[in-house]
Design goal:
The longest helix is centred in the last third of the chain and has 17 residues, at about 45-60. The radius of gyration is 14 Å and the shape is globular. It has helices spanning about 5, 35-40, 45-60. The protein contains three helices and no strands. By secondary structure, it is mainly α.
Length: about 70
């Protein structure tokens, strides 16, 4: 697979807020200012977009498209 094929199709729509929500949990998290500024600049729904980016990363890890420390022994 080339890199373009490894990116989930929904990635290109991640910035759009479709209003779909799962069960959520309130957390406190510290993020770099430039990261927050980037997402806020896209307008309302920035926390949802941040969640979608994290979900996309999670799914690529679960699909073993992206390796992590627990995969180092392979």
């Amino acid at each position: 697979l080339n890199q373009a094929e490894m990116i989930p199709n929904d990635w290109h729509l991640i910035w759009q807020d479709t209003g779909e929500r799962g069960e959520t949990q309130r957390v406190t998290i510290r993020l770099d200012r430039d990261v927050v500024r980037f997402f806020k600049a896209m307008g309302p729904g920035y926390q949802t977009r941040m969640n979608r980016v994290l979900r996309a990363f999670m799914l690529t890890r679960l699909a073993r498209i992206v390796d992590g420390p627990e995969d180092a022994a392979r």
